[in-house]
Amino acid sequence: MSRGLIPSSVLPPLTTPVNKDDLAKLEKFSSETEFKDYLSKAPVIGYGRGFGGALAVPSFGTTEKSVPQAADNASQATVDRYSDTNVQVKGIDEPDIVKTDGREIYVSSPNFYSGEPRPLMGSQGISLPVPADERVAIPPRLTSGGVRAVKAWPVQNLKVDGTIGKSGDLLLSGNKLVVLSQQAPDRKIYVYDVSNPASPTEKWNYEIKDNNEIIASRLYQGKLYLVIRTQVNMATPCPVRPLAMGETAIVIPCTEIYHPVTVVPADATYTAMAINVDSGKIEKNTTFVGSTGQSVVYMSEKAIYISYYYPGDYVAYFSDFLKENSDLLPAEISQRLAKLSGYDISPAAKMTELTQVLSNYESSLDNDARLKLQNEMQNRLTEYGKKHSRDLGKTGIVKVAVNGLGIAASGTVPGQSLNQFSLDEFENNLRIATTIGQSFWGFGFGGGQSESANDVYVLDANLNVVGNIQDLGLTERIYSARFIGKLGYLVTFRQTDPFYVLDLSNPRAPKMTGELKIPGFSSYLHPLRDNQILGVGQENGKVKLSLFDVSNPSAPLELAKYNLDDYWSEVSSNHHAYQQDAKHQIFFIPGGKGGYIFSYQGNNLRLVKAVATAQARRAVYINDYLYVVSDTGITVLDETAWNTVKELSF
User: Fold this and answer.
1) Which InterPro entries does the UniProt entry name for this protein (predicted)?
2) Which of 216, 232, 549, 570 has its Cβ near the most Cβ atoms within 10 Å?
3) What pTM does this model have?
4) What one-character-per-residue DSSP string does 539-591 give?
5) Domain boundary among 367, 389, 411
6) Which domain CATH number covers 592?
């Protein structure tokens, strides 16, 4: 057998050498020709986990806003407080499908079908049984999409004030409503004046050009911050045109695009920009190359961090492996492969040559020798992978200053981050949690998989690594992370749920101080109050809530847990679905069967109200009323008695 020993399912990704120092250095292309040359040496990779944000300022519960103590008239009650979207960085808003200013609730929904399943009926409307050829299905109700402006206060006047015929995630800046519409064919950024919610007026819009998508957005101090990913056109990679206002495109020339000094897999560019919400003017922007996979975006008050993952150089990895295992192959084969990593050819060509050399040698062996070599290679590769698991996967990080949007620093760490909560900025240091050693490889004589582990790295303002904690949760991977001030919390999972407490008070000597092993796992961690963390995840295939006491970092406790008779909650994958009212010590989570309101008084978790409404999505509070928003309407609950006081159907 020759190449048949290398099934495509185990061939490693085609990658380029990644040098730690060079990956941390960025410079601009000098021309389109240089960009094309870069791409010719940089194969594409195409898998990843998406984008998001991360915590930079501890925020216990969700934030709320106060309203001046003045009623519009004698018959209208005063709004004293109302909720914001659950975000990581206090003061930096994130887009979601529901927003409120304390008087209006703006609800965005796409077109969808809803309603109870209908029985099959005969052609004359006769209930089954009827002949099969006469049976027709009655379709469920079609609910039109768009944005609804709902008059939410006073409660008794609950009604739909006005509508906008666009849908998408929302941001609210004063009386300006941003609608991020990314569903074809209407892929635009709209801004509406909602001073009169009954009659919104469009102020400006940008078209999202073909091969572009918004992967992260934030609202901060009246500016809309966007990170836009552009799929690279290999024939004409630049200039980049992410947006257009009318017939005028935003053009980013080749000479304004940054790239790592080391050639890395690149099939996209990333553009960070700031837009004035009132005027629509793009004030600043910066662009650099990267990959469409394994990236996370995080914004603090000072910087936007954009990360990108690269699997590493498998040819160099195998060459180094042979240096430690020189008895496996004849000297001439090892020498030939050692020279291969230095050839000025594409990574794809190197991998082809590597597999061909190995396959030719393998074909020259008799069956006994071939079987022995396959087993030896398998075992030694696995052992080598345990010692060198951090050699294969790197995450590059670009730091873009909020003030001016210039590139402030760049750096690298081993491994790959899970999601937005894996990154955090505190006292000018960046903390990042990564999983390493998830790579599987095959080199012709068998394959191997390095043992997974989980690390936390602390980087200074210049993104140099100054401290780390390594080898948490061996053979497991990160399911959730949260950084709060000088402490960090990490959940890994394989069979049990290790909950780790990390002491990050000394950036140069971080350490793991406490560990708790419990069944199931938490995929979202939220600080309920001082020294208490809520975990939302699963156990035995159903939603599990855990209340952790971290008052003693060396001995965390699970104070309480609650297992819902529901199979899924959006909170596990989208923190915006979570809502907390610290005044009443309750929180809301949506589930597959309805919405759930829990009390966390008395160091316990108690289900105080369940709202059996189809497609419950979000909850907001205004004064002491909780508005549960579903795809089909709004249910208003009195937070003092938990009775339903008003309902609205869409």
Assistant:
1) Beta_propeller_containing, Quinoprotein_ADH-like_sf, UCP006425_b-propeller
2) 216
3) 0.85
4) ETTEEEEEEEE-SSTTS-EEEEEEE-S-S--GGGT-GGG-EEETTTTEEEEE-
5) 389
6) 2.40.10.480
